[in-house]
Design goal:
Blueprint (H helix, E strand, L loop, with lengths): L2 H13 L2 H6 L2 E6 L2 E6 L6 E3 L4 E2 L1 H14 L13 E8 L9 E10 L3 E9 L8 E8 L13
Antiparallel strand pairs: 1-2, 2-6, 3-4, 5-8, 6-7, 7-8
Length: about 150
């Protein structure tokens, strides 16, 4: 599948998620290898007003969304794939005032479940804020959706 089509599908999917729009998430990169989303630093993601530290819930939202949307990188047609299971291991806190990136890849696709893994990071994926693994249920092709037309 062409990289431009994968990116288009990822942007369409992200555009349907109102909470992600409110957080300002953007597609940073998308291809057959995986998906990277950008979560801009803002007041909306601060968990500790005294330090400006990023709330863990914002990282969870970023990684659940990144893993879920990464399914468009491997599926031939758009499918809704809700989260079955998500595990996040936090390695260190995100630094205040800096954007957070989430990368996810699909490492196994079955007829019923897609398995994903990834990292949240700021500058270097080799210095992760968190590691994630997730499982997503395949519900089949969505007929007549904007994502299906891509």
């Amino acid at each position: 599948m062409r990289e431009s089509l994968i990116r288009q599908r990822a942007e369409q999917f992200l555009g349907m998620l109102r909470h992600c729009q409110m957080l300002g998430m953007q597609v940073h990169g998308a291809d057959e290898q995986g998906l990277t989303l950008r979560l801009p630093y803002s007041e909306n993601i601060i968990g500790n007003p005294e330090t400006g530290g990023v709330h863990g819930g914002a990282i969870t939202t970023l990684m659940d969304t990144t893993c879920g949307i990464s399914t468009v990188c491997v599926l031939p047609e758009f499918e809704i794939c809700p989260t079955l299971d998500l595990r996040i291991d936090y390695m260190r806190p995100a630094e205040p005032g800096r954007d957070v990136f989430g990368f996810a890849e699909c490492y196994r696709v079955t007829p019923n479940v897609i398995f994903t893994r990834g990292v949240a990071y700021q500058d270097d994926p080799q210095q992760p804020i968190a590691h994630v693994v997730g499982a997503f249920m395949r519900m089949g092709k969505v007929v007549g959706s904007a994502g299906g037309a891509a």
